[in-house]
Design brief:
- The chain is mostly helical and about 325 residues long.
- About 50% of the residues lie in helices and about 0% in strands.
- It is built from 14 helices and 4 strands.
- The strands form 2 sheets. It has a two-stranded antiparallel ribbon with strand order 1-4. Strands 2-3 form a two-stranded parallel ribbon.
- The N terminus is likely disordered.
Length: about 325
């Protein structure tokens, strides 16, 4: 899906055709060690496939509500069950009493369980014939929930989850007709899980820019959420700073859902605690918001060494340069 749309009338097997027959799966590893390495990332197959995946989904959700009808495949159901399991583990791992208000150390116990069980959990998503891919794909899942040492979470962890989904598309577990369910079911469920982790364990924002960042924790739901609102007959960007409108529409639109969470977590005037978002409310159309957020995502996340130094590269998202 990151590389090519499935053609109408093609068989399900065609979804897997862009994996080379001689591909050897591998546990992804760090390749960006210093700032000059960023050039390798921007020229890599991984970058092209990752941004292609994000933009394909951006196009797929354009003008559609979270509550619209779409296909939910068995693979999507299996992913939701996996995320539900991770959610249940939070309930089974309550925060501990500690002097520090932030970064509850119980998160490390929860994370240890994921670290130990990720591959087993993924065997319910990835069929036995593709079992060799499990360790490679599992690493992105483990990287997608925050850092267990610092007990923080940020856009780099969010990117790992998008990479996890991209890899599942590349091996054919997720298919082109799963696009809406990938964003509206799986990613939305992931967001709810991350919010629960952030609230339960008082996780710190990783590399937060404070009021000058778009959001303490997420970025992608603002991109896809603004795409959902393109050409909306009544809702304009200026409306999302109105709490009443946000509360009326948050179940239909991911962007509104994100703003609702910010309103719950932060106090004071919106323009002060979320200055970047406040500025975006002055943009005249959702289409311009969407285009601007994509540019901002590339500049503030994908081209920033502190974020990308943690990204891991394997056989599915390789560091190899794109052939000219």
């Amino acid at each position: 899906m990151a590389e090519a749309e499935q053609q109408p009338g093609s068989s399900p097997k065609d979804d897997v055709l862009h994996i080379p027959a001689n591909l050897s799966f591998m546990v992804p590893k760090k390749e960006i060690h210093m700032v000059p390495d960023m050039g390798k990332w921007k020229r890599s197959q991984a970058y092209v496939d990752y941004i292609g995946f994000i933009l394909t989904l951006n196009e797929g959700v354009k003008g559609k509500k979270l509550t619209c009808e779409y296909k939910v495949s068995e693979s999507i159901e299996n992913l939701l069950a996996l995320l539900n399991t991770l959610d249940r583990w939070i309930d089974e791992t309550p925060p501990i009493d500690q002097p520090s208000r932030f970064g509850n150390k119980a998160f490390r116990l929860w994370y240890t369980k994921l670290d130990q069980e990720a591959e087993n959990l993924l065997r319910s998503v990835i069929p036995p014939a593709l079992g060799a891919a499990v360790p490679e794909v599992a690493l992105y899942l483990k990287e997608a929930v925050g850092n267990s040492t610092r007990i923080d979470y940020g856009t780099g962890h969010e990117a790992a989850f998008a990479a996890f989904l991209c890899c599942l598309c590349k091996i054919g577990v997720l298919r082109v007709d799963d696009q809406l369910a990938i964003v509206f079911k799986v990613f939305d469920r992931y967001l709810k899980l991350m919010r629960k982790l952030q609230k339960t364990y008082r996780m710190e924002p990783a590399g937060s820019q404070g009021v000058w960042g778009l959001d303490d924790f997420q970025f992608l739901p603002f991109i896809w959420g603004s795409s959902q609102l393109v050409d909306h007959p009544t809702l304009e960007p200026r409306h999302f700073v109105d709490e009443k409108i946000v509360n009326e529409h948050h179940k239909d639109y991911m962007f509104m859902e994100c703003v609702k969470f910010i309103n719950e977590m932060k106090t004071g005037p919106f323009a002060e605690h979320s200055n970047q978002l406040w500025n975006i409310s002055a943009v005249p159309t959702w289409s311009k918001v969407n285009q601007g957020l994509i540019r901002m995502y590339k500049a503030e996340c994908l081209e920033k060494f502190p974020v990308i130094q943690h990204f891991k590269f394997g056989s599915l998202l390789p560091i190899l340069s794109v052939k000219p």
